[in-house]
């Protein structure tokens, strides 16, 4: 809708940009942004405005403010991965997906916060501090929370965004931008999307270029898309997907952007409910919602059947081995020699490397590097890495079998519970949390399949809960079409945030789900 | 003692850009001027395979009789070093691009060019991998300077099985490989520019016993040093063992000044390289005529058969052709190919002269080549062009000068003063005396002046005739045709 508004001149790109920047300033306490690129954003908005005045906008995304997770390279703008290792690092080039967005006229507001090097499920372990879930400050949450005194509890009671793309999710959720890029390796886009009440899309591996995305696990990473509605996700997907010669793991096939049809008849669909996703620790609330969603499909005429993905329970362990191994390898380049933080220690190359890496990386990163190197040792390689790859193949085959048996799409919860308060979250360490939280999202990365988290309802605490759809390889259109139908049915409520209300949002007022398409 | 020598040869691929990035490949460019984001390991960059490098490896594999693997894989080999920006090298450890080949090379027995023996060494594999950058240690200022121009340049690592037994064999094998690479154009293989580097694996054992512990001598950059290093190492190991010591499985370097191998400080202990598949590169798939899908042209893929059909003549083929075409000896063909540009020079001379190639070759190999060697010049730098030499040989062929005179003329030509052979001949009055009567007179004078010798000849000692010929030559200042002189003398003596 905002795109239409831009076209019709109801609002200008510069006005839009300024409003978003103002909102970013007033929601600074969320800590969603690491860098706000005010000057360049306004310039981009100006350029967009000129185009609109000429009647020649570049497309739907022209003039639309977006933000990008701080592990994507952005030319001339600091890219830190929330790590000391890259503090002050100014990228000399744009990631392909960033370039594509800019080429469509999108306005880049800034870089969003994350767990250091995308390792984590809370967006709490970056050097710039944790991201706060905007819903912590929503009327819906405040009404439901048992508060003894006001502001104190508010301060200590805020909930996490989930991770690792928490900054992007918070940015979209709090209306500071209309779409954001995240990354998804084990659920890092879908998890915070579910906790922040926004749409989180993980595309099929190989559909979108990873050139310029600072890698966590090269064989599982994908750029993720966070938006306020499914249609928007489809639009963003259409503008960034496609073969990139700079990324040899993207498929060569021509990609055609698509519009989502308004599905009315779901009777021909077969929805699979994988029983293994009834995981230990799944809250009864979410279980009930999952059930309700299944019934929703059933009542509408779709075939809803229980299926089995027997190797699901091994996916976390398998992921742990493969992820840490690739991390150990990918992090080997951070030695302070060519770029990034360099320690003052200069007795020898080795000591400089060691000091630089100790100073530059946090415990989480260092822990994974050590684990990964252990698994890659000659004597362990066969037993850990090779075995994990074999298990990975089994997990992927589980999905193949199920989809081959006639199931169109899988419906699962995204997270085990709604967002927990920060104080509670940090009681367990990063590794434990990741192990727990990734369980429902992780297998899709192992198998390279597309998956999307759609905001479904509010929990008893007044916090968002999302449900996940997992689709067939490269069948994003089908996946999102079904997700869109579901979205329409559940009518997820809009967040009620003081800060958002305060700003004059003529654009936002007359929409239920403030989208731009 | 049986020495055992195996080699690992790194050949820089001759290509415009690097193996996985678009930056240029060039020798001796200003430091860090040929470095792309990927080469510097900037975060978020990804490798993209260079087609030309794949073709170079396939060509080389075919020329070495290897089996080309239609599917090969890339791996990461991890270690920390200043000249390795990513902390790992992309190589092919599990499944390289070519395996199980062979290389034939020739050796002279007892340093006599006339006796050559052919040997074969098995090629274990050829793999594609990245070159590292260069690090220069400045001990005075206690710093290391890193130049990444070379980082990421494509290499073919050719692994030769331990079928060799001494420095000479190793050098000959590498020389032949060098010629092959240069003929293919897959590598310029100039050792002085670091385009061909050799690591030698050396061990010794008693016949019948298992192989001994081997050492690795790294980064040898000339054929001479290779032979020396290998022979020194063999000797060192034998001495060590005979004195009751043991050989450590270590890495050594060759100190060319001292002429010996020394342990290398940096590579202590055994390294675990933590090999891992390179996740950013899919398996490399090559096709042949049979497996090529119908709708693909050879431009879209690498077709092994297409490359095979277009392979240029390998050195062994070239040599055989030279022998057949010109009637020269096999040893000659080796020398011709061994010197850069010599074959071409030879063929040019043959074209421009009536002298038989079999005779021309003598002048090329004995005279021209020795001059070049004496003055450390390459064929290209020769002050005597093929045109000039042909001109000279024509004079000789037409019997206008003697062979001895020709040698004198060549010496003059060598000075490079721009005179033609004919001019020199006239200047130095080297023309053969054509006037038979004049020759007869001189012969007569010699005969008259040497009664004893004449009597000896008449008595049956034909060898003394040569002395008389020599004397006539002296009288004529080398301007007489010895064959003619001999005829005249014989005629006179029989009168």
Write the SSE topology.
The complex is a heterodimer of chains A (517) and B (495).
Chain A (H helix, E strand, L loop, with lengths): L1 H6 L5 H14 L6 E4 L1 H17 L10 E5 L26 H8 L3 E6 L26 H6 L5 H8 L8 H8 L5 E6 L5 H7 L2 E4 L19 E6 L2 H11 L29 E5 L9 H16 L3 E5 L7 H16 L18 H12 L2 H14 L1 H27 L4 E5 L8 H4 L4 H8 L4 H6 L3 E8 L5 E7 L5 H15 L7 H5 L3 H4 L8
Helix pairs in contact in A: 2-3, 9-18, 11-13, 11-14
Chain B lengths: L1 E11 L38 H13 L3 E2 L2 E2 L2 E4 L9 E4 L6 E11 L7 E15 L3 E5 L4 E5 L6 E11 L2 H18 L11 E10 L9 E6 L2 H20 L8 E5 L4 E4 L12 E2 L6 E2 L18 H6 L5 H12 L3 H9 L3 H11 L4 H18 L11 H12 L5 H12 L6 H7 L8 H14 L1 H9 L4 H12 L6 H12 L2
Parallel strand pairs in B: 12-13
Antiparallel strand pairs in B: 1-10, 1-11, 2-6, 3-16, 4-5, 4-15, 6-7, 7-10, 8-9, 11-12, 13-14
Helix pairs in contact in B: 2-3, 5-6, 7-8, 7-9, 9-10, 12-14, 12-15, 13-14, 14-15
GO biological process, one term (chain B): glutaminyl-tRNAGln biosynthesis via transamidation
Protein name (chain B): Cytochrome c oxidase assembly factor PET112 homolog
Family (chain B): Belongs to the GatB/GatE family. GatB subfamily.
């Amino acid at each position: 809708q905002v795109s239409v508004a831009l076209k019709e001149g109801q609002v200008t790109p510069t006005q839009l940009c300024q409003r978003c920047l103002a909102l970013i300033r007033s929601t600074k306490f969320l800590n969603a942004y690491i860098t706000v690129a005010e000057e360049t954003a306004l310039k981009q908005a100006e350029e967009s405005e000129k185009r609109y005045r000429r009647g020649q906008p570049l497309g739907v995304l022209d003039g639309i403010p977006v933000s990008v997770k701080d592990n994507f390279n952005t030319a001339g703008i600091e890219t830190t991965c929330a790590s000391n290792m890259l503090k002050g690092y100014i990228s000399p080039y744009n990631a392909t997906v960033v370039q594509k967005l800019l080429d469509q006229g999108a306005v880049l507001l800034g870089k969003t916060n994350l767990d250091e090097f995308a390792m984590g499920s809370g967006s709490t372990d970056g050097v710039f501090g944790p991201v706060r879930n905007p819903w912590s400050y929503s009327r819906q949450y405040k009404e439901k929370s048992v508060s003894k005194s006001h502001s104190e509890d508010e301060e200590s009671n805020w909930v996490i965004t989930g991770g690792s793309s928490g900054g992007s999710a918070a940015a979209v959720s709090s209306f500071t931008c209309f779409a954001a890029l995240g990354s998804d390796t084990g659920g890092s886009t879908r998890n915070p999307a579910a906790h922040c009440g926004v749409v989180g899309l993980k595309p099929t591996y190989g559909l979108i270029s990873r050139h310029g995305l600072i890698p966590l696990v090269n064989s599982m990473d994908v750029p993720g898309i966070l938006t306020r509605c499914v249609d928007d996700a489809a639009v963003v997907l259409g503008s960034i997907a496609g073969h990139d010669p700079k990324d040899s793991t993207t498929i060569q096939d021509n990609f055609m952007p698509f519009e989502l049809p308004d599905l009315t008849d779901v009777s021909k669909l077969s929805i699979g409910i994988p029983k293994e996703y009834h995981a230990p620790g799944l809250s009864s609330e979410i279980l009930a919602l999952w059930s309700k969603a299944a019934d929703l499909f059933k009542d509408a005429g779709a075939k809803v059947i229980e299926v089995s993905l027997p190797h699901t329970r091994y996916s976390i362990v398998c992921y742990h081995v493969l992820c840490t191994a690739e991390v150990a390898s990918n992090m080997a380049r951070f030695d302070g020699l060519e770029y990034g933080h360099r320690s003052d220690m200069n007795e020898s190359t080795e000591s400089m490397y060691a000091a630089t890496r100790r100073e530059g990386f946090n415990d989480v990163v260092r822990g994974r590097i050590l684990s990964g190197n252990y698994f890659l040792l000659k004597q362990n390689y066969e037993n850990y890495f090779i075995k994990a790859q074999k298990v990975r193949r089994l997990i992927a085959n589980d999905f193949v079998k199920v989809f081959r048996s006639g199931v169109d799409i899988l419906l699962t919860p995204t997270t085990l519970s709604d967002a927990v308060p920060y104080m509670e979250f940090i009681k367990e360490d990063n590794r434990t949390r990741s192990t727990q939280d990734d369980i429902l999202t992780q297998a899709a990365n192992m198998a390279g399949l597309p998956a999307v988290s759609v905001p479904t309802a509010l929990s008893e605490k007044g916090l968002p809960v999302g449900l996940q759809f997992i689709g067939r390889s490269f069948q994003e259109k089908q996946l999102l079409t079904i997700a869109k139908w579901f979205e329409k049915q559940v009518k997820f409520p809009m967040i009620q945030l003081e800060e958002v209300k305060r700003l004059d949002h003529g654009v936002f007022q007359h929409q239920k789900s403030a989208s731009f398409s | 003692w049986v020495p055992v020598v195996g080699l690992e040869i790194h050949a820089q691929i001759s290509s415009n850009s690097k193996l996985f990035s678009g930056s240029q490949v060039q020798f001796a460019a200003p430091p860090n001027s040929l470095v792309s984001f990927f080469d510097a390991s900037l975060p978020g960059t990804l490798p993209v395979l260079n087609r030309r490098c794949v073709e170079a490896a396939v060509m080389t594999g075919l020329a070495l009789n290897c089996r080309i693997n239609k599917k090969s894989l890339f791996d990461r080999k991890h270690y920390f070093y200043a000249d390795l920006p990513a902390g790992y090298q992309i190589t092919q450890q599990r499944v390289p691009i070519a395996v199980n080949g062979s290389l034939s090379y020739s050796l002279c027995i007892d340093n006599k060019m006339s006796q050559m023996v052919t040997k074969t060494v098995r090629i274990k594999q050829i793999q594609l991998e990245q070159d590292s950058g260069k690090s220069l240690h400045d001990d005075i200022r206690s710093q290391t300077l890193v130049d990444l121009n070379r980082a990421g340049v494509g290499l073919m690592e050719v692994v030769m099985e331990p079928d060799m037994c001494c420095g000479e064999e190793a050098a000959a094998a590498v020389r032949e490989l060098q010629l092959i690479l240069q003929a293919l154009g897959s590598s310029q293989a100039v050792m002085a520019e670091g385009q061909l580097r050799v690591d030698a694996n050396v061990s010794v054992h008693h016949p019948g016993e298992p192989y001994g512990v081997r050492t690795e001598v790294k980064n040898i950059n000339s054929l001479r040093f290779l032979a020396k290093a290998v022979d020194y190492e063999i000797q060192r190991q034998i001495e060590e063992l005979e004195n009751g010591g043991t050989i450590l499985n270590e890495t050594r370097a060759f100190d060319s000044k001292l002429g010996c191998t020394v342990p290398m400080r940096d590579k202590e202990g055994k390294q675990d390289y933590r090999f891992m598949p390179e996740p950013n590169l899919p398996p490399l798939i090559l096709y042949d005529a049979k497996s090529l899908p119908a709708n693909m042209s050879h431009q879209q893929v690498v077709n092994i058969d297409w490359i095979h059909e277009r392979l240029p003549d390998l050195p062994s083929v070239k040599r055989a052709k030279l022998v057949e075409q010109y009637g020269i000896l096999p040893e000659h063909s080796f020398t011709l190919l061994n010197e850069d540009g010599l074959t071409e020079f030879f063929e040019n001379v043959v074209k421009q002269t009536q002298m038989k190639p079999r005779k021309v070759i003598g002048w090329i190999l004995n005279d021209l080549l020795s001059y070049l060697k004496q003055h450390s010049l390459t064929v290209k730098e020769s002050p005597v062009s093929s045109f000039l030499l042909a001109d000279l040989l024509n004079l000789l062929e037409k019997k206008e000068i003697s062979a001895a005179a020709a040698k004198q003329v060549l010496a003059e030509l060598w000075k490079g003063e721009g005179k033609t052979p004919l001019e020199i001949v006239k200047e130095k009055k080297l023309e053969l005396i054509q006037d038979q009567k004049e020759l007869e007179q001189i012969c007569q004078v010699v005969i008259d002046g040497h009664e004893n010798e004449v009597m000896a000849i008449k008595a049956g000692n034909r060898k003394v005739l040569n002395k008389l010929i020599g004397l006539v030559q002296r009288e004529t200042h080398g301007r007489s045709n010895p064959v003619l002189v001999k005829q005249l003398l014989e005629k006179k003596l029989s009168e």
